[in-house]
Amino acid sequence: MLRLAPLMAALALSAAAQPADLLLVNGNVHTLDPARPHATAIAVRGGRIAYVGDAAGAEKFRPEAKRVIDLGGATVVPGLNDAHLHLEGIGARELLFDLEGTKSIAELREKLAARVRDAAPKKWIVGRGWIETHWPEKRFPTRQDLDAVAPDHPVALTRADGHAVVANSLALRLGGVDRTTPSPSGGEILHDAGGEPTGMLVDNAMRLVLRLVPEPTPQEVEQHLIVGAQREARLGWTAVQNAGNSFEDSELLRRLIAEGKVKIRVYDAMSGSDGSGRKLLAAGPVIGESGGRFTRRGVKFYIDGALGSRGAALLAPYADYPQSTGLLMQEEAKFMPFLLDALRAGIQIGTHAIGDRGNRTLLDWYEKAFAAVPAAERRVAQPRWRVEHAQILAPDDIPRFARLGVIASMQPSHAIGDLYFAPSRLGKGRLAGAYAWQSLLQSGALIASGSDAPVERGEPMIEFYAAVARRGLGGFADENWHLDQRMTRGQALRAMTLDAAYAAFEEEERGSIEAGKWADLTVLSADIMAIPEAEILKTRCLYTLVGGEVVHEAK
Ligand SMILES: [Zn+2]
Fold first, then answer.
1. For residue 396, what is the domain's CATH number?
2. What confidence score (pLDDT) does residue 2 get?
3. How far, in Å, from the CA of 229 to the mean position of ligand 1?
4. Is the pTM higher than 0.90?
């Protein structure tokens, strides 16, 4: 069992001798500590919380405090923790060709044409972020759409969910994709009525062209990580959990954190598909390095695709595509040995599972692995394995999460993005087990919430709103959209703080505002536990504190 508690107690003792670094007064503090749910003042010493309570009790820290912040009634919550995102992708989105918010194929073409004008001859043009479900054209983009404005540059534009790409004719030719190319296992090359590839490549077919795109240089990756982490701090995220990193990029991130260039906490999971997971098994976990800011102890796998591109593995065919039940991307014989090794080595597994067949198969495999390696043979008795997304569940599978001690790592914003097309993909009957937050919580399961940025915007107020409103940003929800599955505000806050910390084995170190824990705090412009739902989206982050250090302060 890996435990930090003795170390924490020792640090708290040595910190007690130091003067307070920081005193926060006049706040509206939601602590998530059942013994003291509400407070108005917090004192910080040696990066940890030395005092939580009322103004009178805080006064004794005032003479010694290096800085006193009068919050003027602003709301303080435990430092927000995004339990599933892709940090490098967030930075890349900030710096590269961002197609987020593109409203039509016509606009996609305009943006691409502008990009071509600035591009060096023959250079790859790579973008991300389009979603066709809102477009007036009501179809996927095609290679012809791209060829019309970009005939001479290879182009690959990834859908926002990362599970499909549209390529132009030149990119397809370079990738060796023509009418005779078979779809790879776990992927699909879409064809038009004449049998020619349309340019759309789904899941495992994406790599036919994406493998040709030059990898970003280490300097570029470094820039993406720094810019991505700065954005996260600005939005109020104090900690993020990276869902699938390469071992090399993880080492780079580890160095950036050690050098203080990345200030937020990162819990890093290695990618299971490129050998990085094996490297972690061999090297062993890294826990709480750089003052608890860097941990590497997870591996991320995929078992199926996504719902939007109809790659999610379903038990029954798609309602709007009856010839398909989606794609399973793992084979038990290849996957199981890794699971057994991971249990013995104390490595956490998190596996992307969207469809009800994907989820059931994964829970079956986890259950088998737990039975094969009993607790006494595990380095960590409670391995806290995770299902990433857990989007569409057969009702019988919902109680299995609590029973197996498997965490549902879910993204509220997926539910309010998918509500526009999930009903047509799934039909009414299956919606009962879709994004079934309340059913999971009532069954005793733990939900760690995250944003999956850059698949979604990655804004904490959008995630919180999505969890409690379960409606589109404008208030839309279909009559069949099971509003009874909404989270309460208390549940939603817990899922993005204390329970997200639990998913990273860090609930004793952060996730609530209690003396002895790290002073990871998010200060908000409004009381999200009380204001009307629509105002949640207008709420801004005023301060972000990581270990008592102010890493963002609104001007
Ligand atoms: Zn993801």
1. 3.20.20.140
2. 45
3. 16
4. no
